[in-house]
Amino acid sequence: MGPSPDVIRQRIAELCADNRCTYATLSRLLGRQDGYIARHIREAVPYELAIADRDKLARFFGIPGQHLGAPARMDDRRAFAERRRYKPNYRTVLRRAT
């Protein structure tokens, strides 16, 4: 199981303080009213953010989704695996312009 909603609220508050962003900025990012995140953190309303909202916040802060209780993003894992398998081939064929 992931972290409890109380822990997630604390982490969001810490990330906001560390990155010097306002709660209103995060609320706008989620497409909500300006006081949505502030009310969520201070009054626990709503008690738990939706998974999609937590995923957006994790992407915004550049942290893994699991830190905010969102599932691991398959596209991130897939991209990492592709980068490890991909070996660039820098040989190019030069052709004469005619």
Structural topology:
Elements: H1 5-19, H2 23-29, H3 36-43, H4 51-61, H5 74-85
Walk me through the structure.
It is a single chain. This protein has about 100 residues and is mainly α. It has a single domain, classed as lambda repressor-like DNA-binding domains (434 Repressor (Amino-terminal Domain)), CATH 1.10.260. About 55% of the residues lie in helices and about 0% in strands. The protein contains five helices and no strands. The protein has helices at about 5-20, 25-30, 35-45, 50-60, 75-85. The longest helix is centred in the N-terminal third of the chain and has 15 residues, at about 5-20. About 15% of the residues are buried.
Summary tags:
mainly alpha, 434 Repressor (Amino-terminal Domain), 98 residues, single chain
Q: List the uncertain runs.
A: none
From the alpha-carbon coordinates, what is the Rg to the nearest angstrom? Answer: 20 Å
What's the main sheet like? Answer: none
Number of domains: 1
Shape type: elongated
Task: Quote the distance from N terminus to C terminus.
Answer: 65 Å
Number of strands: 0
Let me know the average pLDDT: 83
Specify the helix fraction band: 40-55%
CATH class: Mainly Alpha
Instruction: Look at the helices and sheets and give the structural class.
Output: mainly alpha
Strand content: under 5%
| H/E topology pattern | HHHHH
CATH homologous superfamily descriptor? lambda repressor-like DNA-binding domains
- Multimerization status: single chain
Named CATH architecture: Orthogonal Bundle
Number of helices: 5
- CATH topology description: 434 Repressor (Amino-terminal Domain)
